[in-house]
Design a protein that fits this description.
Chain A contains 28 helices and 16 strands. By secondary structure, chain A is an alpha/beta fold.
Chain lengths: 714, 330
């Protein structure tokens, strides 16, 4: 087929309508895909996947023949907070209200393999999820929820062994044998090194843990998904849709190879691999992304010659983007989430989590959680979109985008393969740099208004609506520690010691690690103890930080804003004998470092000297570094509700170290209701989600100038 | 917190007060004349307490693992009961003037040690990859009682020469490549090195490292050593697997012992003092030149004349320098 006979006429008509040539309507997406204003049959020429059927390879139109026409996707809301008891009540309420599966969020202390009484997790216990120390907590979590009947998804990667073991033992004590268990364990460690940093051990032993779990599940838990290969966190860290697709596929390949190397047959485990994608605001792009991912996986898996067609299927969970939510005018988030929800559905997801509109501020309330759940129910039960399989199949635009994503992603996958696979590529730093560059560019586009966010950089409202925010009470940690103590008193110390010795031995000598972790958890060893038993052999990993520079300003171009800020920092230099110097840091176990990376590169581009601290620091450690490097200001990034404990602690520690003159500013997810408290403590500036970075630079400089004036008046 | 009196700084540094040490370094690095005056007075007061530390320069191309090496090496020194100061130099952007200093993310254990002090400094456009005041900062750390002072350079450009001229022992880190070790390396850097250490000699790399060691040994044997009593050795280590690190320290001590015995050590330090003096003279002259009112007045005109080709650069330079003398005579 060639060009549409009337294409020229159409171009002329466009030109007449607009007074501009048709090319002026072209759009270069962040993925580097050129999007035209019109697609026709000509654009589908040579695309052999277009006229295929769902349920059959290459699965672009869906993994099941009947898709939602037969059974809609699973509404699976991710939740968990404070203690097991409270989370349990929340789960049971949601199940009664129409939710179908559970998805457990754990707190960062648990993720990183620390018990609730560990001094490093002071600000983390029960904050971003539920705290699990022992089997007792796990039993409470699933109290009166029959585990033979309920599909349970667990977002756990770092402390995956003790947590999965605790789940198995809790089920066993409920009378449910492990072969009856259904659900998913995330168990995707590679992306942790790329984005969230929620790992414990170095990459090599961590990969062994992944394949031990895949191996164990393929034999003993045939209905359980042993890994959920996740692109979601990459998107949240700033990856565009092509990067998300490519790196997720590359991670998947790495796990397949690890399992094959561990002696498994491809069809023993490949059907139990599942995926997890993040869906953002580029509506058609992310529909196409899910279709492209299925095409790619089908193609990539051919090289292992599976016999079972299910080994070629990409089944996925999706979540709407948390990053796309704004603090400003927060009810807009309901609309954003609804669009992203529809995008995931039209892309053909198997299950979905929709975010609550208040998640840019804090944990969801009962009301916001209900709206989020109902968003899916309305699409599922009111909108009639489920009636037809792959309703956008054959759309010139969507099919073209699908093809383009496949094409671009393949280039990146080839780059990864050339480096020796994803583990090696991560070591080289390549994927992280690409994601961070993509994040810095996105921030610069938003800050300039090239990408529009309603309520943030356009149509701003004068008065911010303060929504209700759920707050985890500070006493949670004490409560958790008390139960931990009680469990420790009642257990048989000798049995625990023996079981832990077996874990260490297996870490050293070999064998399946999950097999030895189960008896340890059954004996009431703690998550921290089991993690430490392996740490003795594996060591604890700390990532090094690489940072890009120049990208933010480059996306900005030679704008006046950049020039004026550079002039301000130059003037500062002239007056004070050096450039403004800022330490950007995160405290506690929160490893989301997109924020500090973007801030570091943007501030350096505006002429700041920027220090970056190691991950997972205590307030005392941050204070020491601030004092030693003699910075003017510490910028704390906080995303998981530890701010009310950690920031006052930091201010105190700064005074202790003789750095009481150092300013502290905070950014990230902080409920507006806490602003007053933090200002009262002495915080000099708070920058919530949606703050234009260049504005924050100005405010920080104002605060510094103000302080130096005050000092001169003394 | 800024005060104009020297005493609190002197006492603070001598007592090893982290905050005052940090503040003193800031003063020394400051470009404000008032700060520089104060800094000069502080340095004068501290000079009697300097000289006892071992001064170590560490260089190598980006990616060779300098920070990781220093983390491991520093922790080894701490275990031996020594205290360590690390001065890390990070490049400033020529466009924005800003910098990103992430050294401590790779020295996360050392950064927490009570007996360690790590200070990253931006190059601020100084050629040679050394911050403008590294030498002064090194002396301040000595006065604060640190046993070993390590200067880490950004590893590009002429940094090697500058650093080598201010330390006792200049260590060059190398990677074992695929047989082309010597191609990218300037002969100059081999002449400066007191030892070459091949890092990342671990895992599949061990054999490559052994080959590289041979290649460097051959290359060094062709050079005349800078000291008759010291032939720079080639060592291998793994900062990751903690092998060969002690041997590096033994080499540093051996070097000191041998050169002290022959008197070369003291001679080297004396020469470095002269270097320092000349550098300051040079800097002072330059500063005086640019702050000269006549020069400031005439410079735009003379520049224009050079640009237009009306005056040769040499003649213009003569005219400018003459302006300085005119003022001097007045």
């Amino acid at each position: 087929m060639s060009e549409h006979p009337d294409k020229q006429k159409w171009s002329a008509l466009v030109k007449k309508e607009l007074g501009e040539p048709v090319e002026s309507l072209n759009w270069m997406t962040p993925e580097g895909i050129l999007v035209k204003p019109l697609y026709t049959a000509e654009d589908l020429e040579g695309l052999d996947f277009v006229n295929t059927l769902p349920g059959f390879s290459p699965f672009v139109r869906g993994v099941r023949a009947s898709m939602y026409a037969g059974r809609p996707w699973t509404i699976r809301q991710y939740a968990g907070f404070s203690t097991a008891k409270e989370s349990n009540e929340f789960y049971r309420k949601n199940l009664a209200a129409g939710q179908k599966g559970l998805s457990v969020a754990f707190d960062l202390a648990t993720h990183r393999g620390y018990d609730s009484d560990h001094p490093r997790v002071m600000g983390d216990v029960g904050k971003a999820g539920v705290a699990i120390d022992t089997v007792e907590d796990m039993k409470l979590l699933f109290d009166r929820i029959p585990l033979d009947d309920m599909s349970v998804s667990m977002t756990m990667n770092g402390a995956v062994l003790p947590v999965l073991a605790a789940f198995i033992v809790a089920a066993e004590e409920q009378g449910v044998p492990q072969n009856k268990l259904t659900g998913t364990i995330q168990n995707d460690i590679l992306k942790e090194y790329l984005t969230r940093n929620t790992y414990i051990y170095p990459p090599e032993p961590s990969m062994r843990i992944v394949s031990d779990i895949i191996g164990y599940c393929s034999k003993r838990m045939p209905r359980f998904n042993s890994v959920s290969i996740s692109g979601y966190h990459m998107m949240e860290a700033g990856a565009n849709s092509v990067l998300q697709t490519a790196f997720t596929m590359a991670d998947g390949l790495e796990y397949v190879r690890a399992a094959l190397k561990a002696g498994l047959g491809i069809d023993d485990f490949a059907p139990r691999l599942s995926f997890f994608f993040g869906i953002g605001m580029n509506f058609f792009m992310d529909i196409a992304m899910l279709r492209a991912a299925r095409l790619l996986w089908n193609e990539l898996m051919q090289q292992f010659s599976p016999k079972d067609p299910r080994s070629l299927m990409l089944r996925t969970h999706c979540q709407t983007s948390g990053w796309s939510l704004t603090l400003q005018d927060p009810y807009n988030n309901i609309v954003r989430t609804a669009l992203e929800c529809l995008s995931a559905v039209l892309g053909g997801t198997q299950s979905l989590h929709t975010n609550s509109f208040d998640e840019a501020v804090g944990l969801p309330t009962e009301t916001s959680a209900r709206i989020a759940r109902n968003t899916q129910i309305i699409v599922q039960e009111e909108s009639k979109v489920c009636q037809v399989v792959d309703p956008l199949g054959g759309s010139y635009y969507v099919e073209y985008l699908t093809h383009s994503i496949v094409k671009e992603a393949k280039k990146i996958i080839a780059e990864v393969e050339k480096l020796g696979g994803m583990a090696k590529a991560i070591e080289s730093g390549m994927p992280k740099m690409k994601i961070e560059e993509s994040a810095a560019r996105a921030q610069a586009r938003i800050d300039q208004g090239k990408d529009i966010i309603v309520g943030v950089n356009k149509y701003r409202v004068e008065e911010e609506i303060l929504t209700d925010v759920f707050e985890v009470p500070a006493a949670i940690r004490d409560e958790q520690i008390a139960r931990l103590k009680e469990t420790k008193v009642r257990r048989d110390p000798q049995a625990v010691a023996q079981a832990l010795a077996a874990v260490t031995q297996s870490a050293e000598g070999g064998g399946n690690l999950l097999e030895v972790c189960i008896p340890a958890m059954r004996a009431r060893a703690t998550v921290g103890e089991v993690s430490e038993a392996m740490e003795k052999v594996f060591g604890r990993f700390v990532a090094t930080t690489q940072c890009i520079s120049g990208v933010y300003a480059a996306e900005f171009g030679d704008s006046e804003i950049v020039a004026s800020l550079r002039k301000r920092t130059d003037d500062f230099h002239e007056r004070h004998g050096r450039r403004p110097r800022m330490l950007v840091t995160k405290m506690g176990q929160d490893g989301h470092d997109r924020g500090i990376k973007v801030i570091a590169t943007a501030y350096a581009d505006m002429g700041f000297d920027v220090d970056i601290g190691p991950m997972f620091q205590t307030p005392e450690e941050v204070a020491r570094m601030a004092v030693e490097n003699d910075v003017h200001v510490v910028g704390v990034s906080t995303l998981v509700a530890g701010h009310k404990v950690l920031i006052p602690h930091l201010l105190e520690a700064l005074i202790q170290e003789g750095g009481g003159d150092i300013l502290v500013v905070a950014g990230g997810i902080i409920p507006p209701a806490d602003y007053e408290f933090l200002y009262g403590q002495g915080v000099a500036g708070i920058f919530g989600p949606g703050t234009v970075v260049t504005d924050s630079v100005n405010q920080v400089l104002n605060a510094l100038e103000q302080k130096s004036k005050a000092n001169h008046d003394d | 917190m800024t005060t104009d009196s020297v005493e609190p700084y002197l006492n603070g540094v001598r007592e090893g007060n982290r905050r005052m040490l940090a503040k003193t370094i800031t003063l020394v690095e400051s470009s404000l004349p008032a700060h520089q005056e104060l800094a000069a007075a502080i340095l004068d007061g501290l000079l009697p307490y300097t000289g006892q530390a071992i001064r170590l320069g560490i260089s190598g191309v980006p990616g060779v693992g300098k920070s990781t090496f220093i983390e491991t090496f520093g922790m080894m020194l701490i275990r031996k009961g020594l205290s360590v100061a690390v001065l890390a130099v990070d490049p400033s952007s020529s466009r924005s003037g800003g910098s990103i200093m992430a050294d401590k993310t790779r020295m996360d254990k050392l950064a927490l040690e009570e007996k360690a002090f790590i200070r990253p400094s931006p190059t601020e456009g100084t050629l040679g990859g050394v911050a403008r005041r590294t030498r002064e900062v090194m002396h301040i750390c000595e006065a604060a009682g640190y046993d070993v002072v390590i200067v880490e350079t950004v590893g590009v450009g002429q940094s090697e020469t500058r650093v080598a001229s201010m330390v006792d022992f200049f260590l060059v880190l190398m990677l074992a490549g695929a047989g082309d070790e010597l191609q990218g390396i300037k002969k100059g850097i081999l002449e400066l090195a007191d030892a070459i250490v091949i890092n990342k000699a671990d895992g599949n790399n061990i054999e490559k490292a052994r080959l590289a060691k041979k290649a460097y040994e051959n290359a060094l044997s062709l050079l005349t050593p800078s000291s008759p009593s010291w032939s720079p050795p080639v060592l291998t280590c793994s900062a990751l697997e903690l092998t060969g690190i002690d041997a590096v320290w033994d080499t540093v001590l051996d070097h000191r012992e041998k050169l002290t015995a022959t008197g070369e050590f003291d001679q080297k330090r004396r020469n470095q003092a002269f270097d320092w003096m000349w550098m300051l003279v040079e800097e002072g002259l330059k500063a005086r030149f640019f702050s000269n009112k006549e020069v400031q007045a005439q410079l735009p005109k003379i520049k224009q004349a050079v640009a237009a080709g009306a005056v040769t650069p040499a003649a213009a330079a003569n005219d400018l320098l003459a302006l300085l003398e005119k003022k001097g005579m007045r």
